[in-house]
Fold this protein.
Amino acid sequence: MVGPDRLIALPPARLLQLSAVVALATIALKAGAWWVSGSVGLLSDALESVVNLAGALFGLAMVAIAARPADDDHPYGHHKAEYFASGFEGMLILVAAGAIVWTAAGRLRAPQLLEQIGWGLALSLGSTVLNGLLAWVLLQAARRHRSAALEADGRHLVTDVWTSAGVVLGIVLVHATGWLWLDPAVALAVALNILHEGGRLVWRAAQGLMDEAAEPEVQAAIRTTLDRLGIEAGPALRIDHLRTRRAGSRHFADLHLHLPAGWPLGRAVERRAAVEAALRAAVPGLRVSIQLLSHEVEAHPDEDDDALPDPAPAATPQPKDARP
């Protein structure tokens, strides 16, 4: 039997394949629960599992693209492809929420009796346990691999767990009170919940595509390392203009390293290499770009970097030697 630690250590692609398999199983369980009970709440739960399957398959494709090495057209790599998986899954959630609202609204106008509630609840609870275990594994693995696709799939599954719990509560309340309108009412509440999660995933994907800064804990690790290096180096070393960004599972940092103008080039390069090594040790996988400057030079990266330099003046043609 594979333990949780071994599952978490699996590559993102393997985990998303597992998510697709679990989604197929939960679709079968939830569709069966809806079929035997007639609960629109259980139908809404089954629809969201279809979204889980589509999201896992699309995430698998994006993880494969993100793993491609850098090329001439993408010199910084393909790591941002994972954000498309997060945004796509968020959009699917929004569509599923709209379908749930449409179905529940019709059932509110014409409530129906629920049948074979016991079997429906048993099948729904079985699928909920599967989703809960997988969600925990995916979120733990997302932190280990720094994968936006795994995080999106895991958070969606957490929402699915809460959705299933709400649906089961609605069915129990209908059975206890006889109020048939509670079933579609709970389905509408479920739709509002997953609308929130879908919007959140789309927002996070947009932020990642717009070169969002690294997470606060990553920035703190970088600044702590730079502060320590500054103390050790004394007045000979000054670091400023630090900027960070995240692209999928990768983190990038750009900064200026000011050194005495009299230092030989070899010594300056050695110091830069030491700073890079310390930062990579503090943040595994960090890509560091350091510009070497003397203490007397101040660069201003916030100025218009896209402005083209003034064209060089054309060379004045020299007359050919005159021959008698």
Observations:
- Confidence is low (pLDDT under 50) at residues 304-324.
- The longest strand covers residues 238-247.
- The chain is about 65% helix and 10% strand.
